[in-house]
Amino acid sequence: TNTVWQGYRSFFSKRSYWVALLAGITNNMVAFGLLSWLPIYFTEGKGLAFSSLTWATSIPYSLSLAGIMLWSYVGDKTNKRAYLAGMGFFGAGICAYFAITAVNIYLAVAVFTVTIFIQVSYACNEYAIMQKIVPKQNLAAGVGFYNGFSMLLGGGIGPVIVGQVLAATGSYTTAILSISFLCALGGIFMIILGRMIKY
User: Fold this and answer.
1) CA gyration radius, the chain
2) How many angstroms separate the CA atoms of 106 and 115, rounded?
């Protein structure tokens, strides 16, 4: 038991680990917030026919595969993964704002596609960042705790936040805009982390 605790203490004692965990929670809040509310936003907020929902929601996530390849490559080449993920957060937040202010559904889908394309820059780099922070011999425990906790909190809270903002304001635009705020928060966490771990 003491040996197990020592293993956890090897990364729990690092401030960089907790900053990375906050960023992971925020990333899942953004990702699941978008995933849960985009279909509703398109149909109820933008008036898209339900029968047309498939193409409107599948295009952004289909092209995110290209984003994964690009950001993985850039992360390898620059070796500045935390900064790259931070810039991705900021870029996604800005694009989400322009997507919700788009004048028609086609432009909204196009800009949301760019939003998700940029936002996946975090997912491409998070486990490499964990490897930089957590000692190799405790990597399984460190990544396991990070993944479980960030998914549990971020994945559960993200859709709720968007829903609560919608309930409070009655505005789909304001609800989606809350995701831009979360993106800004995630970007701040990653810039701080980049300075801490020089990565």
Assistant:
1) 18
2) 14
Q: Which one has a higher pLDDT value, 103 or 78?
A: 78
Judge residue 84's burial from the number of C-beta atoms within 10 Å of its C-beta, 0-12 exposed, 13-18 middle, 19 or more buried. Answer: buried
| Angstrom distances, CA of residue 168 to CA of 15, 31, 38, 165, 172 | 35, 22, 18, 5, 11
Query: Any residues with CB less than 8 A from the CB of 128 and at least 6 apart, and which?
Result: 75, 81
Instruction: Please calculate the CA angle 119-32-128 and round it to the nearest 5 degrees.
Output: 50
Q: Is 36 exposed, middle or buried (0-12, 13-18, 19+ CB in 10 A)?
A: middle
Contact 124, 75 (CB under 8 A): yes
Higher per-residue pLDDT: 60 or 154 = 154
Q: How many residues does the chain have?
A: 199
Residue 58 has a pLDDT of 85
8 A C-beta contact, residue 42 and residue 55:
no
Quick one: tokens of 177? 């805009």
Query: 146-156 burial, b for 16+ CB within 10 Å, e for fewer?
Result: bbeebeebbbe
- Cβ-proximal residues to 19 (8 Å cutoff; 6+ apart), any chain: 189, 192, 193, 196
**pLDDT 10s digits, 47-81:** 877 777 778 778 888 888 899 999 999 999 999 99
